[in-house]
Every structure is written in C-alpha cells, then in structure tokens.
Fold this sequence. Notes:
The chain is mainly alpha-helical. It is built from 8 helices and 2 strands.
Amino acid sequence: MIYTFSTWLFFFYTYCFLGWVWETCYVSVRKARWVNRGFIHGPFLPIYGSGAITVLIFTLHFRTNAGLVFLTGMASATLLEYFTGAVMEKLFHVRYWDYSNQPLNLNGHICVLSSLAWGLFSVLLTLYMHNPIERFALSMNQNLLEVIVFLLTVYLSIDMAQSVREAFNLKELLVGLESSSEEFRHLQKGIEVVSAFYGSELKERSEAGLKKLHSAFDAGKEKGENVKAGIMERAERARTKRMYRNISSLLGRNPHAVSKMHEKAFSEFLEIMKERSAEKGRDSH
C-alpha cells in the first residue's frame, strides 16, 4: 500500500493521540491521580507516533507475519527510543523516562521489558489496530484530510516549541542551581582548611587571628544564606514570569523524570516545588 505524505502525517498524529490515551491512563492509575502524560501539553505523545510510523515502514512488506513483525518492530522501535532518549538528555540534561531501575537496561534509555512491549505493540498495531485506521484515512476526502493534517501540524508545532522552551528553561535553572551549590562547597572546603590550620596552631595565634577565623566562618555562613536566597529568588522569579508554573507543569506531566547530570540540583528544585506548593496551599486556606 502506497500512502501520501498527508496520510502518513494523519497516521502519525492518530498514534500520537492513542499513545497519549494509553500512557495517561496507565500512569494515572499507578499514581492514583490524573496525570496529563507527555512532553508536550496537548493530548499527543510523539514517541508513540514515531514508533508506530517506524514499525509500519519496516513491516509493510510482511505485515501479516506476526513473528517477523514482532522482531522487526521490537528492534526498530527500541533503536528509536534509545536515540530519542539520548538526544533529549543531551539537549535538556533531563531524562523524561528512565529505565535505570529495570533489569537489563542500557544507559537507562531502553530495557528488555520495554523492548518486548514494543514488539507486542508492533504485532497489535499491524495485525489489528492499523487496518480500521487505514480504511478510515483512505476513505476520507483528500482535501479534508489535508486540512485536518495542516491544522494539527500548526497546533503541534506551537505546542512543541513551547515545551522545548520550557525544557531549556529547566536546564538553565538546574545549571544555575548546581553552579551556586558548587561555589558554596568550595567555600566550605576553604573554611575547613582554615579551621584546621588555626586549630593546630591555636595557642600560638593572637587574638587578631581568632577574629579573622570567626570572620571567615561568618562570611561562609552569610555566603550560604546568600546561596539559599539566590535559589529561592530564582524560583520566585520563575514563578513570577510563569516559567516556574510551566516547568512545574512539564515535570508534572513527566513524574518519572530524572537528571543524572544535575542530580543534586534537580532534587533541590523538586524540594523548592514542594515548598511553593505547600505555601500556595496555606495561602488558599
């Protein structure tokens, strides 16, 4: 079967939506609360659409052979998932899915269970799901199909641009938090060295030397407070400019997101999010 470009796009958007339905229902049940799952805001998950198109392209010539479809779909979709995860982590310094705790995983981007799920999905897709969707798309008026595809392309392009901007904002915030923490750690180390030096020579040091030591500790304490204030100021500024809310929404849609590159800073930001949510809850009462 030969499809037009518009037909391929229609398939892509359809499977993006169906993937969102599946993933949102699955995560919402596990979390016991509603989770609008996905990297973008709208009800679409591009990884599922991309996976479906990849599987269809590689299995078109033997789509009725379940064994070959399983193996080919599993291999092609797994490669796509690994490449997508690695590129996103490189760009945004955050993993929006992570299989590090799963057995037989590769760098946390893919694992055996996920690959087997892709293989099963490939069989269900090619043997059952795609046939009615294909008939519907091919029976649709071509002009109407192109209008639908055009509108969805515009909508998803805007949504994707906004989501990418939010992801870069989160990356910038994590880098800033980590930089502040690293500066504070260096300062603490310097204070420890000064403390050890003065401690061993305490009897031979004058009162002026002790005052310098206390001044160093006071400066370190003040620096620590300044770092904390800087973190809170960043969070406040982000919230004021809606960046904080958007980042919170992004992480809310991806509750399993982690950052291996900025692990401590990521944890600090999650704590700030909790504090802000608690403050908001108290203010509302």
